[in-house]
Amino acid sequence: MTVLTTIEAGTNAGARTGGPDSDCAEPYGARRIAARPGQGEAAVFDWASAVGALRYAFQPIVQLRSGRCHGYEALLRGFERTGFANAGELLDAAEAAGLLATVETALHAKAVAAYRALSGWNEAKLFLNLDARLVGRPDSPWLARDPAAARNSGIVLELSESRPVTRGVAVDAAVDRYRQSGAGIAIDDFGVGHSGLRTLYEARPDYVKIDRFFIAGIDADSRKRALVAALAGHAHALGIQIVAEGVETATEFYTCRDLGCDFAQGFLIARPRVDLTGLPNRYAIVEDLNRQDRRQPSESHRRLSEVIERLPPLRVDSRKTELLDYFRGDGSAAIAPIVDEHDRPLGLIRERDLKRFVYSRFGGELLRNRGLGNGLDDLVIRSPVCDISTPLDRVIEAFSTESAADGIVIVEGGAYAGVLSSGALLRLVHERNLAMATDQNPLTRLPGNAAILRHIEGALDDAGRGHVLTYLDFDNFKPFNDNFGFRQGDRAILMFSERLKAWAGSAGAAIDADAFAGHIGGDDFFLGVSGGEECEVLARLVELLALFRSDAESLYDAETRVSGGFLAKDRYGALRRFPLLAASGVAVVIPPGCHGLTPDAINAAIADHKAAAKGAEDKLCVVRLA
User: What's the sign of the alpha-carbon dihedral 323, 333, 357, 151?
Assistant: First the structure.
């Protein structure tokens, strides 16, 4: 009798995990040990009953752009029937009793039995939490006995950051042993644990699950957005996919999706379910959110769709002879994209890696020898993966890694779409640089009108945050320019543009907001701020205008500064006195929520209030639109 048969009696009798081999001859029911540390040997605890009392709830992990269920995380429930408060307490007691591996193996067996009882279970993966203390131990579950039989098991082991791996364990070697069983690897609770980037480096995971701390309120927190965007960019460059944990609002969903996260898990999509009958393979809430998003596909999406090479992929379970036929059939193909049974990319196989077989005396026979393994997985190399809507800057970042030399795999809706070659990327970079140079003020190097309009349109579509869209211009600039010369006029424009750039660059840290600065032309500027507290944004705008008034005094001689003004002709040719140079602004405030506003409405509000701004004591007129 195996351990699993004994402990699962009456629930899923006889089920096996497919990964943890049962090499404990003694059944759980026969072992009675100290119930909890410190209670003494007289107190015994029936671990078979405790494990039997627990059950699993499944929470879906869903593709952000398609709503397709990628997998389920198995979450333990029923601790009130065991005497333990939670999984951590139970596993701590099991470790103290010397039974951590045995208990974890049995719990995983229950989860796998429930998973494989699902209709169409092999269409999704099962994410199982693995106690970090078991990593590197010989009694750990999921150490392969028969790797060939366990391939494509659909299991992903989550290594939680909440506990450290035992000191001295070579994580990379330990993880390789789990991979040999066919299991994928995920880092759970990333960002709040013990090892952080070190675990990411050593484990080389397939997935990183970003902790809920960084997802909660991410739509209104520029620092969280910056961190998640950077992580997504680096992860994709290494071929790692990102799961956003704890997504609970539509604005968090949109933000995570737009920052490059691949999957989401959270109450917005579905709560964990103990009743596992009728679990959907697609989630309507995600489809509805994407359908309701009024924004058009990005320029990056359109161009990537046009330039990627839609090379036909090969399934990882294809025979090696099919691989030879693939390269023989198309002499121009230097790589073959490899996907799993659900068209999810696994990596690339390079034609040049086959030369050691093709040009060796018995190479062809070796490739055809089934005894050496007939699948392709041992030839696959990891490659960067980017969604087709990934901003071009992040695609370029993904290309900065050595593994990207042969191209980047592009996915759409979580499924393979094509490969972006280095040549295609160079064309995209050239196009972007040319467009930036065309739409950039030659004096200030700030974005011009086209970029400003795109920013306004994006802000109006972003209903999850409040926005302040500000038009800024100089007061009485023409008399100043005519009287003191164009060179001084250019100095004033550059002086203000530098203040504006510094203001926008510091907005994230100072007021927790995203800021965009643009130059409409001449002495007309634009500043867009998304997020942050409205009162703080407006206060800093007033400070910006005051600082420029002070800066502008350096443009005059001492006598003019003392007098506080200068004589010059007005637009009608009459000589009159003008005050020292200053700037004023109209700040259009748009609160969060749906409003139906258009760029024309913003322009009209600005035009109607320019005079009021110039007459205001602090040089700022605030207009609230809803």
Answer: negative
Query: Could you give the CA distance from residue 195 to residue 201 in angstroms, rounded to a whole number?
Result: 10
Phi, psi of 206 (to 5 degrees): -85, -30
Q: Which amino acid is at 471?
A: Y
For 495-501, the CB contacts below 8 A with 24+ separation are: 495/548, 495/551, 495/552, 495/555, 496/472, 496/523, 496/525, 496/548, 496/551, 496/583, 497/443, 497/444, 497/446, 497/525, 499/544, 499/547, 499/548, 499/551, 500/446, 500/472, 500/525, 500/527, 500/544, 501/446
- Sign of the torsion angle spanned by Cα atoms 235, 241, 243, 249: positive
- Measured from the Cβ of residue 236, the count of other Cβ atoms closer than 10 Å reads 26
Measured in degrees and rounded to the nearest 5, phi and psi for residue 356 equal -65, -25
Q: Does residue 142 contact residue 153 with C-beta atoms inside 8 Å?
A: no
Whether the CB-CB separation of 304 and 387 falls below 8 Å is answered with no
CATH 3.30.70.270 placement within the chain: 449-624
Instruction: Determine the pLDDT at residue 297.
Output: 59
CB 41: neighbour CB atoms within 10 A?
7
For 96, phi then psi, to 5°, come to -65, -30
Site of tokens 């059939």: 329
CA distance linking residue 205 with residue 202, whole number of Å: 9
CA 349 and chain centroid, separation: 26
Is 449-624 in CATH node 3.60.20.10?
Answer: no
> Residue 306 corresponds to which amino acid?
E
State the fold for domain 57-292.
Answer: TIM Barrel (3.20.20)
Query: Given pLDDT bands bounded at 50, 70 and 90, which one contains residue 372?
Result: very low
Rg (CA), the chain: 31
What is the mean pLDDT of the segment spanning 267-271? Answer: 96
pLDDT in tens, 52-103: 999 999 999 999 988 999 999 999 999 999 989 999 999 999 999 999 999 9
* Contact present, 519 and 446 (Cβ < 8 Å): yes
> CA geometry: angle at 185 spanning 184 and 188, to 5°?
140
Lowest model confidence (mean pLDDT) among 1-15, 97-111, 141-155, 225-239: 1-15
Q: Residues of CATH 3.10.580.10 domain(s) within the chain?
A: 304-435
pLDDT in tens, 437-462: 778 888 999 999 989 998 999 899 88
pLDDT of residue 300: 67
Give mean pLDDT, residues 470-481. 95
Q: Would you say the pTM of this structure is higher than 0.85?
A: no
Q: Between vectors from CA 256 to CA 339 and to CA 395, what angle results, nearest 5°? A: 55
The pLDDT of residue 512: 79
- Using left for φ > 0, alpha for ψ between -120 and 50, and beta otherwise, residue 154 falls in left
| pLDDT single digits (tens) 388-432 | 877 777 777 777 665 667 888 888 867 889 998 888 888 887 877
| Residues in contact with 421: Cβ distance below 8 Å, sequence separation at least 6, in sequence order | 309, 407
Q: Token digits for 51? A: 């494990």
* Topology (CATH level 3) of domain 304-435: CBS-domain (3.10.580)
